[in-house]
Design goal:
By secondary structure, the chain is of the alpha+beta class. Helix content is 45%, strand content 15%.
Length: 337
């Protein structure tokens, strides 16, 4: 009789090789156990150490916290995903990828700041350019005004501290006025008497040369004199100095020969005929005042903004030839009533 086939166990798989061969279930269990002990590709990726399990647990906590915070602050889904990615990167030790949104956030503020800075700089440059243009225009206007004023002022020979004052342009075209000092009392210089008064001028038979001037400002004033100008005769270096009369300029400036004469009281060895330094004008007597207008009287009209406040002879007392404005001349003449 042929042997009877054993019936398979209920928990065995009918399609397995053991079932077909009729092997007992115990063999299947042993085989399965042996098979499971070999590592597979999927089981090799799962952490088996205690430290790996702790790191995974810590990462899970971080992900849970980030997810909770994202829900509370209504953060959009892309932000929560980036948070999860960052947490996973902490576990794996890699750098988290930068999202497109984060790139835009980094780039956009820099661009806006650059644009703003450029706009500010451009505005500043425009403002500076406008100021420079305005300053240049003002400078051109001033130069044009100075040029017109220079053309309007006539040239009248060398200039000095006795130049025409502002507002005296009308005098430059006509008669001008001066004040010239001389010593009326005897004084010996190098054996010669240098005395010369209004009376000496009145007694002269011909125009008198006003020599002996050794001051550059006084010399320049004489260079500026024109024929027909009038001058006050002023007694100086005496007990009572002051204006005593009038004389007229009848011959314009020429070389003062007395500067070359060693015997003259006002000889100047630095002056030569090749390069003369000093000059003189010739004058004639015109009038002697009935009374002297003394220095103290003149000074009294120069205080507190008086008419003679700017009179050159009062400001430069040692100047022997000085300028007199028409207003000052008329005022002095008016003192006689």
């Amino acid at each position: 009789m042929p042997p009877m086939k054993r019936k398979a166990e209920p928990d065995s798989e009918p399609d397995s090789p053991s079932a077909k061969r009729g092997r007992p279930t115990t063999a299947k269990v042993i085989t399965a156990t042996a098979t499971s002990s070999r590592p597979t590709r999927s089981s090799a990726l799962v952490p088996n150490s205690r430290e790996d399990q702790d790191a995974k647990s810590e990462a899970s906590k971080i992900v849970t916290k980030i997810a909770t915070k994202s829900k509370k602050s209504d953060v959009s889904e892309p932000k929560s995903k980036s948070a999860k990615t960052a947490a996973e990167a902490v576990v794996t030790g890699s750098n988290p990828p930068t999202s497109k949104l984060e790139k835009k956030k980094k780039v956009t503020p820099r661009k806006s700041r650059a644009v703003t800075t450029t706009a500010v700089k451009t505005g500043q440059i425009d403002a500076l350019s406008a100021k420079a243009r305005n300053a240049e225009a003002e400078s051109k206007t001033k130069r044009a005004r100075k040029g017109k004023a220079a053309k309007a002022t006539p040239k009248s020979g060398p200039k000095s501290g006795s130049q025409l004052e502002d507002g005296d342009d009308e005098e430059a075209e006509g008669q001008r006025y001066w004040l010239m000092k001389a010593e009326p009392e005897p004084r010996i210089e190098k054996g010669k008497d240098v005395k010369f008064s209004i009376d000496d001028l009145a007694a002269a038979r011909e125009p008198e040369g006003w020599d002996g001037v050794r001051n550059l400002a006084a010399r320049n004033n004489m260079r500026a004199m024109k024929k027909g100008d009038l001058a006050f005769f002023y007694h100086s270096n005496c007990k009572i100095p002051g204006i005593v009369g009038i004389m007229e300029i009848v011959q314009e400036h020429s070389v003062d020969e007395s500067a070359f004469d060693p015997s003259h009281p006002y000889y100047d060895q630095k002056s030569s005929r090749d390069n003369p330094k000093w000059e003189l004008v010739h004058v004639e007597f015109r009038e002697k005042f009935p009374r002297m207008i003394g220095l103290k009287e003149l000074q009294s009209h120069s205080r507190d903004g008086g008419v003679l406040e700017g009179m050159q002879t009062l400001r430069q007392s040692r100047l022997s030839v000085s300028r007199v404005t028409k207003a000052e001349w008329d005022f002095v003449m008016g003192l006689f009533g």
